[in-house]
Amino acid sequence: MTAPVLSIEGLRTEFRIGGVWQAAVDGLTLEIARGETLALVGESGCGKSISALSVMGLVPHPAGRIAAGRIVLEGTDLVGLPDTQMDRLRGNRMAMIFQEPMTSLNPVMTIGDQVAESLMLHRGLSRSAAAKLALAVLEEVKIPSAAARYHDYPHHFSGGMRQRVMIAIALACEPALLLADEPTTALDVTIQAQVLGLLADLKARHGMAMLFITHNLGVVAQIADRVAVMYAGQVVEQGSVERLFAAPAHPYTRALFAAIPRMDLDDQTLNAIPGRVPPLDAMPSGCRFAPRCPLARAGCEAPQTLAPVGTDHIARCHVATEPVHA
Fold first, then answer.
1. Block means of pLDDT (10 residues each) for the chain, length 326 residues?
2. Domain containing residue 310
3. For the chain, which terminus, N or C, has the lower number of CB atoms within 10 Å?
4. Strand order in the sheet with 226-231
5. Is residue 257 part of a domain?
């Protein structure tokens, strides 16, 4: 078997709160193979974006730090790597698409120059050669009349077109790893479907590994091969999309599915998850979902570990993973 493009082992990312370091990501372990999409799912504040920023080396200092674990990209451990080496990897071997393109694009640079910039920086191309390749990338992400719009600025584009520009910037140097942090959240459903289809096509064409961060399980079903459900800084369930959707094991995952509106029912009650995600400085000592869990019982006050619930399927819940006795 070939080595994974990205391997995260026991990642712990902390932030200083009131003079004390608290973990926003605690013990994250993931692998993504070439040509595979892993979706990272969970409520806002569960640690999804911090996980991606940790991989990119963008955790803000000195308020935040990576306290433990390894992040291995194509055999290179990124934790503790000097900034000069990280700069050579970011935008080159790994790239990130952010949630809101208007706050990520430079408003005073044309979209063509923003795509060409990474090619000149990482590939050492001349301005004319970079411009030619940048135009080809803009055409690849289906920017209409790309040649005519090469010198337009971000404010000339719609939200969907700006997101395509962000995808073009990310893919310009053909990275091995693409991190997409809720790239379709700000788009209407029609444009969202187009962007998801575009990402799937480009991933297949370039053979990238992709970490797709979202809170939308419908998006997961459309684009992902495997899914990891995250809650309060920890992965609570992980498996193939088919198995996890067919038989979600962790009570939190079940609650997420129960909260999805059903389009095939005229009369339905929306199920909300009671309570809220615990703050970093007040995490439960045992199962972090126990205060909100309808299945909580004796044993939930102890720390939970990921255990098998089937082939290619693990969950962090002693109720879901305990053996069934006849």
1. 90 95 96 96 92 95 95 95 94 90 89 95 95 95 94 93 91 94 80 86 90 91 94 96 94 91 73 88 93 92 92 92 56
2. 229-262+270-326
3. C
4. 94-97, 177-181, 209-214, 37-41, 226-231, 234-240, 313-315, 307-310
5. yes
